[in-house]
Design brief:
Number of strands: 0
Helix content: over 70%
Number of helices: 3
Shape: flat
Radius of gyration: 26 Å
Strand content: under 5%
Largest sheet: none
Order of helices and strands: HHH
Structural class: mainly alpha
């Protein structure tokens, strides 16, 4: 399975840095998506806890959902940090600085002297 991918990469003349950069970009996007889902699970647990209204069984279930949401957020934040660390150590930072537009002052016709 990996041989055709490696062959296609060789034919397209991708560098290993480009391949790693694309892979980490994809992983980062997946991590962000799953992190959003973990936050949703956590929020759903909070809603379930509020709606438990003193029912011990429902409260226990809600606490379990909240814990899974917290664990998921922690794991995904750690994965994101590891990816950011590796990209920085390998020199694959793709963050580009956006230059602010520069305006040069021009004199108005009223300021010009004949």
């Amino acid at each position: 399975m990996l041989i055709p991918i490696a062959q296609a990469a060789a034919e397209a003349k991708f560098t290993i840095v480009q391949i790693i950069s694309n892979a980490t970009d994809l992983i980062r996007q997946v991590v962000v998506l799953v992190f959003v889902l973990a936050v949703a699970v956590f929020a759903w647990g909070i809603v379930k806890m509020i709606s438990a209204a003193g029912n011990a069984e429902k409260l226990k279930q809600a606490k379990g959902i909240i814990w899974w949401g917290i664990i998921g957020m922690f794991v995904l934040a750690a994965i994101g940090g590891i990816i950011a660390f590796l990209r920085g150590e390998l020199g694959i930072d793709t963050i580009t600085n956006i230059k602010a537009p520069q305006f040069t002052p021009q004199s108005s016709p009223a300021q010009q002297q004949p």
